[in-house]
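We emphasize that the prediction below concerns an isolated chain of 331 residues; any contacts that depend on oligomerization or on bound cofactors are therefore not represented. The input was used exactly as deposited, without trimming of termini.
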Amino acid sequence: MKHLLLLVTLLATSVMLLTACNGNKNNHTPVASTDYTQVAVPAFSADSAYAFIEAQTGYGFRAPGHKGHEQCASYLTKAMRRWCDSVIVQPFSATLWDGTNAKGQNIISIINPKAKTRILLAAHWDSRLWADHDGDPSKQKNPIMGANDGASGVGVLMEIARVMQSQRPEVGVDIIFFDLEDQGVPEWAERYEDDSWCKGAQHWARTPHVPYYQARYGILLDMVGAAQPRFTKEQFSMQYASTITNRVWSIAAALGYGNIFEETQSDPILDDHLYVNRLRGVPMVDIVQNDLHGSFFPHWHTVNDNMDNIDKNTIGIVGLVLLKTIYSTSL
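Result of the prediction step, given as a token string:
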């Protein structure tokens, strides 16, 4: 999914915008005025989130054309209906990089529908059709399980939805599981197209489930289950959503996780948040694994992205930071 790339035109645009908009402002997390350690939140269970991740991988490959894709969509929809006020399944069609027409489903769950102040949480639930970064060339056209790349973010958000039932937030919460995020042009195709990625986010951003939908901010989770996590301030997040980016990092630091949510500003990443920011105008931050040694994590886009990559401590940290952010929104 996503790329650290980006094409020359995309990077050039980003640099120009960052130069014009950022200057010397919002480059560092501000001193917190709220004691986030005292913000009351429901108890996040890393064991429960882990089980939700495992359940998704139990359906096998969640890529278009595979049986697991349809089965997992049904599982996610039924699960979220247990905890949320309503769930909307948004079907769409998309043309993939090779001309294939694929059917996708964005799964949109709504909590506190009457609340005027809304926040948007998201992750992608599909897994990639091609293990194009696998070290074994014979496996590079095989699908991947996507335990970390996809299922981890969804599992954390499922647990968020579950625990909110015991302590409702004051704000409205919309949780979107985007489909067909990870079906962009594979490395072996020897070409590249930005918009071949994030098809579900593109569709929703242009045709949201509520006309003229807006939210105070959005948070995207992507690859949030790896051991030794490292989350940096990704460039598009700072360009479009520096306020919420700095706030999340400030909360993480207050909770003692400043060594995980690093102050480092990093290269732009093509991910679902880019289209939510650009097309819908909701300031959205991407919390995404950024491995110190390159790529995203060692098994990114390989056949080894399985449950062995999921660390309960990491998903517990991400879940707690997310809950503290949500429940302090009105403070």
